[in-house]
Design brief:
The strands form 6 sheets. This protein has an 8-stranded mixed sheet with strand order 5-4-8-2-1-12-15-14. Strands 23, 24, 25, 26, 27 and 28 form a 6-stranded antiparallel sheet that branches. A 5-stranded mixed sheet has the order 17-18-19-21-20, covered by helices on one side. It is built from 16 helices and 29 strands. The protein is globular and about 85 Å long. The protein is of the alpha+beta class and 606 residues long. The structure holds zinc ion.
Length: 606
């Protein structure tokens, strides 16, 4: 179901638009029709034409300020110009109401709005058009008519370069058009246009398409498909549900920046840096399992606070610890069930996640709910400092693990986190309802365990009490052992926003890094001759005490410098999960069930 068109001239494009009027108005006159013109790959320019049906004379058009990431990104910064005309081609007045909203007058008989927008943000959260491909998070480039956001939408692409095809989970119409029930569903559908590779498979009655846009030597389609089979079989089996007929995996393995994964109701777009993929191939299964599980958790099992989506400002939610963090917990169980990871890998990752939380001083000052609310600050380097914030991914995943163990304990092994998800799927998702953030999770956990779990939510979800790990792990015969490691210490903390540069957040006082002249706020361009990016944390983890580190930085005033110093060392608390001295048969049975995400006693016979 892909389409290709010859490159059209400007004259041809005008004809296209004229023809488009007739086609589009006949079968779906009430729809908002978009034409996305791939006009200039070299300059990354896209032209958008919106055909509004007849209606009220004044229409407001809104471009989203955020989408995909919980960060206000003000996509309007990329809009070069906006104009409008009526059906006879006469210019209509366009008035800017605020930085992201425009008003058209005289549109009672319908109108055509046209604007040019720059698109060069790589990765699954962005919109990018260049001479290699186009990838669109449509919310980044498509304005919506405020009075018709809930009405049907039709979109087509024009001037697609020769040899390029379109891949999208959107429903396909004749003439290369695609449709969606409303704007929210339209922008929940990523679009890849280019010369990609494609594969598909069936599993348990579902049809899966796999689209890969990458260098052929950087991946193996057969291995990828084999992994996907395992992930989708394990996930749909675990949830005992498959709320779709078709699902699309869209992968990029870029040599440059732009990593991440973005969930959608019927698809996911995932980008992993090719070098990172080569060194840690197992991370692809883990990102994939996480994004796939999102089709339930967050897309269908959805917190009320994310609905309706407010495209004009932040949607504040306390639930990301669950919607993101517990999605990672579910991904762990999916990987364990499918044999993609084993017990020792799982327990090592778990212990390292505990270390990550315990080493951030902010675990005593910022709760999982507060971290969810503050997601909107994550674009700022200061906010990412260990003394300022924790990660709702990190703590949320651990809360998923401990809540699961608490439910197993309270229900004598008859319920688990899986039953929480299934309960929420039945009682919220399948009924078209949204859950009331943490209270909704608590309600589900108490319903499946028949126990009061208020203490868990008060202390660890809303509160910042230290988590007594061993109280939770005892039930499965494990104990957390604290140790000390001497680790390399380069003398600074650096972090980056999803596609931003690596920024120095803090420099240790008295360190070699400080003596070399590194300053908080500096942008790191290169570490040991390698461009700073997604793979830099691996580069840093390979350092040993005594090594020389060479860092190219640009200071806030713009000057570039190369700094060199000797890596120091420091003691760091580390954790390991070990078997308890004596493990009872009960603990053994619970461990076996836990490692499969199963309950100990089947609740019914099927
Ligand atoms: Zn996620």
């Amino acid at each position: 179901m892909s389409h290709s068109f010859a490159t059209a001239s400007v004259a041809r494009r005008i004809l296209d638009l004229a023809a488009f009027f007739c086609i589009a108005l006949a079968p779906s006159y009430a729809a908002t029709n978009y034409t996305i013109v791939l006009s200039n790959p070299e300059q990354h320019l896209v032209e958008v034409q919106i055909l509004l049906p007849e209606g009220s004379p004044q229409r407001d058009l809104q471009l989203s300020v955020w989408n995909a990431l919980y960060q206000v990104r003000d996509f309007a910064q990329y809009v070069n110009w906006v104009r409008a005309k009526d059906r006879a081609g006469r210019a209509l007045a366009v008035r800017e109401l605020d930085k992201s909203r425009w008003q058209i007058a005289g549109a009672q008989a319908g109108a055509v709005i046209e604007y040019q927008i720059f698109a060069d943000s790589p990765g699954p959260f962005g919109a990018q058009f260049n001479s290699r491909h186009a990838f669109f998070n449509l919310a980044q480039i498509l304005m919506y008519p405020v009075d018709a956001r809930n009405g049907p939408m039709v979109v087509r692409f024009s001037q697609i370069p020769q040899g390029w095809h379109v891949a999208t989970p959107l429903a396909s119409l004749p003439e290369g058009r695609f449709s969606a029930e409303n704007y929210d569903k339209l922008v929940d559908s990523p679009v890849e246009i280019g010369d990609f590779k494609e594969s598909d498979f069936e599993e348990g009655g579902g049809r899966y398409r796999v689209i890969v846009d990458a260098e052929p030597g950087d991946y193996d389609m057969e291995k990828l498909a084999a992994m996907l089979h395992k992930v989708v079989a394990a996930a749909t089996g675990w949830m005992d549900d498959r709320p779709f007929d078709n699902y699309m995996f869209l992968y990029h393995f870029p040599r440059g920046p732009g990593g991440g994964g973005m969930e959608h109701a019927y698809s996911t777009a995932i980008a992993v840096n090719a070098e990172v993929l080569a060194k840690t191939p197992e991370m692809l299964a883990s990102v994939t399992a996480h994004e796939f599980f999102h089709l339930w958790n967050v897309k269908r099992i959805r917190p009320q606070t994310l609905e309706p989506v407010d495209y004009t400002r932040e949607n504040y939610t306390r639930a990301l610890w669950f919607s993101e963090g517990c999605t990672s917990t579910a991904a762990d169980f999916i990987e364990l069930r499918s044999g993609l990871i084993d017990e020792s890998h799982f327990e090592q990752e778990l212990a390292s996640g505990i270390g990550e939380l315990e080493r951030r001083p902010a675990h005593l000052t910022q709760s999982a709910e507060e971290s969810s609310l503050d997601a909107w600050l994550e674009g700022n380097a200061y906010y990412r400092r260990p003394e300022r914030s924790i990660s709702y991914y990190n703590k949320g995943e651990l809360l998923g693990i401990t809540l699961d163990l608490a439910i197993r304990e309270a229900s004598h092994g008859q319920a688990s986190l899986r039953e929480v998800f299934q309960w929420m799927n039945q009682n919220y998702a399948k009924k078209g309802r949204f859950f009331p953030d943490s209270d909704g999770v608590r309600e589900a956990a108490e319903a499946v365990s028949h126990a009061d779990l208020g203490w868990f939510f008060a202390k660890y979800v809303a509160g910042t009490e230290e988590i007594p790990w061993n109280d939770f792990f005892r039930g499965v015969g494990l104990r957390l052992v604290e140790g000390k490691n001497t680790i390399a210490d380069a003398g600074f903390v650096a972090s980056r926003n999803f596609d931003g540069p690596m920024t120095v957040a803090a420099v240790t006082a008295g360190s070699e890094a400080e003596r070399a002249g590194l300053q908080a706020g500096d942008t790191i361009m290169e570490i040991n001759g390698k461009l700073a990016g997604q793979e830099s944390s691996q580069e840093m983890s390979r350092l040993s005490p005594g090594d020389t580190i060479t860092v190219k930085v640009r200071s806030r005033r713009g000057g570039g410098r190369e700094l060199k110093w000797k890596v120091g060392s420091r003691e760091e608390i580390s954790y390991e999960l070990k078997d308890m001295e004596k493990i009872t048969a009960e603990q053994r049975a619970r461990r076996a069930a836990w490692l499969k995400g199963d309950v100990e006693i089947p609740q019914d016979a099927h």
